[in-house]
Write a structure and sequence with these properties.
single chain, 258 residues, alpha/beta, Rossmann fold, seven-stranded mixed beta sheet, two-stranded antiparallel sheet, 36% helix, 18% strand
Length: 258
């Protein structure tokens, strides 16, 4: 019996998105980036927007996203992805334009660009990967590092008296007039993956319906290498320590009651 006779469309459980190529990913084992890449690719395909999507990559672990998802990409200077996405969307308003950024890129050097793009109500989507650490450059403390968390630059744990408090930037974004949708999700379980995919789809649909307003999908994530934990232990540590600081769920959805 031929393989195609066994794997019929109605029996298909999982399939790699067609726009994800076969380049080996550079992410560490257990990293959340690969899962989120897959979700982004699936949503783009399901919406029929492969030829009408422009992604913007940052500086950080996800800088090479363009190596894995076969769509049009622009690479922004460190932290400037929302500003570049603003220009692209205004010049090509019929395109789906999204940024894919880590916490060091979005919530540190890119804080101003993020806040002002959202406050202007740009019709873009921002995918925000929050693992509470600078993963690419050696595991230093990030603005999102939670209190007590050990990093290369706070080896005894973050102390708010010395280092300040964690920056919960999406909590601030939700109060901006130009924001339409802000949600916080994760991808450590199958159920969480389904919710994250639904959130990404909603954000992308908001970008394309012509009503305006920025959409932000924060994904609370692991960094096994930076945290110096196995993938399994990293997921558990995230659930026990990150989730209380960054609770999952929608922070604002202005379309919910319409």
């Amino acid at each position: 019996m031929a393989l195609e006779d066994i794997i019929k469309p109605e029996n298909l459980v999982y399939k790699k998105p067609d726009i994800m190529n076969d380049n080996p990913m550079h992410y560490c084992p257990g990293c959340s980036h690969g899962v989120v890449h897959k979700l982004v690719a699936e949503v783009i395909e399901e919406m029929g927007l492969v030829e009408d999507t422009i992604g913007v990559t940052p500086v950080g672990c996800a800088v090479f996203a363009y190596n894995y998802i076969d769509i049009d990409w622009e690479e922004a200077a460190h932290g400037r992805a929302p500003a570049l996405a603003t220009a692209i969307k205004r010049l090509r308003p019929n395109k789906l334009v999204f940024t894919y950024q880590g916490d060091g890129d979005l919530a540190a050097i890119g804080t101003a660009e993020t806040i002002h793009a959202c406050n202007r109500g740009e019709s873009i989507a921002i995918i925000f990967i929050n693992n509470g650490i600078y993963g690419m450059t050696g595991g230093q403390m990030a603005p999102t590092t939670i209190e007590g968390m050990k990093t290369a630059t706070c080896p005894y744990g973050r102390d708010y008296k010395l280092n300040g408090y964690p920056l919960k930037i999406t909590n601030q974004l939700k109060d901006l007039d130009g924001i339409r949708y802000v949600t916080r999700q994760s991808v450590q379980t199958a159920a969480a993956v389904r919710k994250a995919k639904k959130a990404i789809r909603k954000a992308f649909e908001n970008c394309m319906d012509g009503k305006g307003g920025a959409s932000v999908v924060e994904v609370v994530s692991t960094c096994s290498s930076g945290w110096k934990l196995s993938p399994e232990k990293a997921n558990k540590w995230m659930e026990e320590n990150m989730f209380p600081e960054y609770p999952l769920g929608d922070l604002i959805d202005k379309d919910a009651n319409k």
